[in-house]
Amino acid sequence: MRFVFKTDYDQDIRILKHSGYWWSYGVLLAVLIAAPFLLGSYLQSQLVFVFIYAIVGVALMILTGFTGQASLGHAAFLAIGAYTAGFLQSHGVPFIVYFPTAAILTGVVGALVGFPALRLTGIYLVIATIAFAFIVEEVLARWESVTHGNEGMRVRALDLAGIPVPRDSEAFYFLCLLVLVGVILLALNLLRSPTGRAFVAIRDSETAGKSMGIDLAAYKVKSFAISAAITGMAGVLFAHKMTFISPEMFTLLLSIEFIMVIIIGGAFGVHGAILGAIFMVMVDPFLTALKDDVPVLAASVASSFGMAQDAATQLQDKLSKIGSAAGLKGAIYGLIIMMFILFEPYGLYGRWLKVKLFFQLFPLYKRATFKRQKTYVKSERNR
User: How far lies 281's CA from each of 25, 29, 47, 189, 219, in Å?
Assistant: First the structure.
């Protein structure tokens, strides 16, 4: 077990608390740098999607995990960033210009969405963000002169200082990794700043935060703007990775997937966004493989137990139809969310912290260590 003897208040807000972090994160970064040269094109492509989902997860972490504001409209922010990139690229604007432009434009839209949210909390705020997502989806479908409507928009490979960067190249992989590292450092430094501490105060208790002089309206709008701007950057990378974008790609289901990133990973730390992104990207090919393999496996097991070949074939066909049923993926996602909320509310990162603490404190570990104590300000008890 490591004991850190602190002699300075600055040690409490360091990004890396001790030398162990330098070693572990250094090794992880080295592995990620070597990954495209060691893995096949499919796994490299999946890692790129992990990076993009992780960027959106960090953006949601700032809004939901730090500030306590719920949102089911981040697919709309992703769409705004993606379509801004596609539109400006088609007019000859270079990547170095439209990448920050997409972030700024999406941040401005996020701030505008944040204003109506000032008087909304809980389920009402969620409904407002869902309505915003539907509005954006309808605008993308109707504004054909800019978005090409339901026909979609082609996005060419990005051009970085005159060098083309195809979506399957190592250069694009490293670009996404660089943006993710930059966003993580931004989030960690934001949390250490007065703005980040104000976000956390608003999340814990708006009444207490207001009593300390925090401008709730300004910081809520700022949180929406920062979260939306980061999601807009992810939208640019998403558009170049997909090479084709259409309104049907940015639906409510995609927003739910983003929420699942922080629910599954853990909504109280940047690590949770990374773990949740890995889970969400990898669960889809896992479900696809499961859908293809389970009917065959079930039929072979049934045949080994004496079932007739025709009956085994019929069983395989029925299971294949069930696996191809519409809405099954959404139902499985909903079940995963419920299981995590009920049995692992701290997410994968919370489980990792519990396991690590167990070995650090063994045999003195107590099961009640992670039980959250309910504390209320007197003015909030009757809400």
Answer: 22, 20, 8, 27, 32
